[in-house]
Amino acid sequence: MIIPSRLGLILISATAMLTACKAKKTTTATKTKSVCENMVVTYTANVKPVIDANCGNSCHSAQKKASGIDLSNYESVREEAKKVRFMGAINHQAPFSPMPKKHPKLSDSTIQVLQCWIDNGSKQ
Prior knowledge:
Helix content: 55-70%
Low-confidence stretches: 7-28
Structural class: mainly alpha
Shape: globular
Largest sheet: none
Radius of gyration: 21 Å
Strand content: under 5%
Distance between the termini: 66 Å
Mean pLDDT: 83
Number of helices: 5
Number of domains: 2
């Protein structure tokens, strides 16, 4: 039989753990948001060089369009970036095909730039 004081202690501990986890998630989301707020990211200056070097000039060019995806210009990249699969593939998340294909995952800082570009309105 559980003594009432033990039951109270268990409930308080469980509540504290749940509250701590919830607070941590909020802090992480706030941190990411604040990083993007302080970044000026544009397609021409920051995104195009990454896309061209890793996908837009090879598999996802205007000529090849692997899987029907053309990443050769601003409008096409902006439209693809609106889809969950864009960042899912770049982050190597299941069930998406990891991109760039047969190459290592892009650096965290490069992925952050792409995410901030999307979060900040995908400016040219």
